[in-house]
Amino acid sequence: MTSDITHGQGDDHYYVGGYSAEDDPYVYPNGVLINLLNIQDTASLGEAETDFASVRIIQLQESPIEGDYSLQHLKAIHKFIFQDIYPWAGECRKVGIAKNETIFLPHEEIEAEFQVMWQRLSQTIFLADLKWDLQGFARETGIALGCINHIHPFREGNGRTQREYLDSLARRAGFLLEWGGVSKLAMKNACVEAETDPECKALAKLIRLSAKKI
């Protein structure tokens, strides 16, 4: 059983696994995400979210949050970006959701699955062992992105949080990721392909094309 929902910037997530807005602690009864401004329509919330998050992302890029790349680290990044708009910023979702043809990981498995990805990253000392190795960096970063996207820890704001997390990893490998050259369609298609490709080759290609040595 699924139930369509809308929120943020006209987002097209929907519930799966028998969940509905009644089960979701992060939405008002009308399906709009609970927010600090008490905005009750998705369009206005999307505009406010973009405005506040954009400022925080600039601050984060100037002074990244240090951490061990664990789920707690990712949650700290999410909380920083969305602290001005969502009281639940930094908290993992508690419902099953999907978007387009992709069904994301059941929320009960978020912590365990993230730990699996973390263990893989730890084998390269969180990419520091891949300093200026573009092929190896793109491969491991692509797999990490595919994993995090499938895990989809948060109710909203996953993409922006993922990018800041990966940007921090990239710097350890001596690269800067220029996301501006990646279209939303290309990223969407690569993420969909990653659902059935454990090597996440399409994402690795996007990473390889976006990476600049620093």
TrEMBL record:
Domain of life: Bacteria
Keyword match Transferase: yes
Assigned keywords, A-Z: ATP-binding, Nucleotide-binding, Nucleotidyltransferase, Transferase
PANTHER family the record matches: PROTEIN ADENYLYLTRANSFERASE FIC-RELATED
Catalysed reaction, written as an equation: L-threonyl-[protein] + ATP = 3-O-(5'-adenylyl)-L-threonyl-[protein] + diphosphate; L-tyrosyl-[protein] + ATP = O-(5'-adenylyl)-L-tyrosyl-[protein] + diphosphate
GO terms assigned for molecular function: AMPylase activity; ATP binding
Enzyme class: transferase
Species for this entry: Pseudomonas fluorescens
Every Fido domain range: 69-209
One record GO biological process: regulation of cell division
Protein name: protein adenylyltransferase
Classification via Gene3D superfamilies: Fido-like domain
Keyword Transferase included in the entry's annotation: yes
EC number: 2.7.7.108
Pfam families for this protein: Fic
Xref: InterPro entries: Fido (IPR003812), Fido-like_dom_sf (IPR036597)
